[in-house]
Amino acid sequence: MKLKEVLLLELRRLFAPAAPTVLLLVGLPILYTILFGFTYSNNVVKYIPTVIYDQDQTTGSRSLTQAYMDSERYKVVAQVTTQEEMERWLREDKALVAVSIPAKFSQQIKLGMSSEILIETNSTNVMFANAVISSSQEIVQTFSAATGQKLQEALNQLPAPALRTTAPVKLGIRIISNPTTSYTNFMLPGLAANGLQIAILLVAGPLIAREYRRLSRWRQTSATTLVLGKLLPVWGCATVAFIICLAIMNVGFGVPVRTNMLSLLLLVSAFTFLVINLSFFFSAITSSEVAALQVPLLYIMPGLLYSGLSWPSLAMNEVARFFSSLMPLTYMADTLRDILLAGYSPFLLSNSLSMFAGGLVLQLTTLLVFTLRRKKFELQTTKEVSP
Predict the structure, then answer these.
(1) Measured between alpha carbons, how far is residue 269 from residues 196, 199, 263, 351 in Å?
(2) Recorded GO terms, molecular function (predicted)?
(3) Going from the N-terminus, what domains does the chain have, and what CATH number goes with each?
């Protein structure tokens, strides 16, 4: 067959009325472009939850506080009165940034002495650290220049006092949870979780769909027994596989594991339970093993971006956040990173329970669909056998 004939044959297949090839080839990139565009539509990370600890309580310190409140990069969620309260807001993820203004802040500036404010930021997601460092430098420099201009009344100052007068406010940065802002710590756990869910989809995807071709062998077996018999081995293997991945991350790549095994098992088992049942659901409603692999992969592909792993969910718009809530990785990635790097996540229990609940709903739906399709098969078989 000549090249021209092969080309014509493939073009006919590509544009055949019943073939979805062109729809996938053209429609899928357009769909993903729109979805990803919604994710990045805000362009920068804004409205980062911030707690202010003002130990000075003077006009000058309140002016600095107001500068943070006026910035669209920050959303001041609380003004606390103790160091312990400030740390608690950070530890519980109620705030991702803390601004600590020292006592005698205004007095030191008036005396020609430089004063330092301290910024604490959670760097489990390095996007926050980068945004906070750059924007805080801008805020402090602007505030410092304005303050210094008012103080330049003395003449013939020596260089060091002149510098303190010109730039009376210094910025101190304290990065917690991921102090080196390591990109490996930031991305590797979530990427491994994404790899796990793809592996589960490839393994578990065909398991229900393939049984529609041999339903006669399951006449005496309940749908519950069949589904659980397929789920439990995959669930156990997937959970163990990810624990091994975490050990490799820790030993081979230096990713810290600051949590206990019980917390890890709770989160990982909930995630694998949800993804397996999601695979079974798609497998139950599709018509073939190939479709059982293709359909969930199309759904799961944007999951890594929408999970909040790289681009934080608080920087997404409402459409993107809704789509994110439908992705299993959303309930896994950030929480996993928090417990590994910080040793604690306030969302561990709620996210784990949400994944178990979602997996259970999908499992019950799979049982219902499989039972109905099996009854339909048995009815067709009875009609064929009847004279």
Answers:
(1) 12, 15, 10, 12
(2) ABC-type transporter activity
(3) 3-33 (no CATH), 48-176 (3.40.1710.10), 183-385 (no CATH)
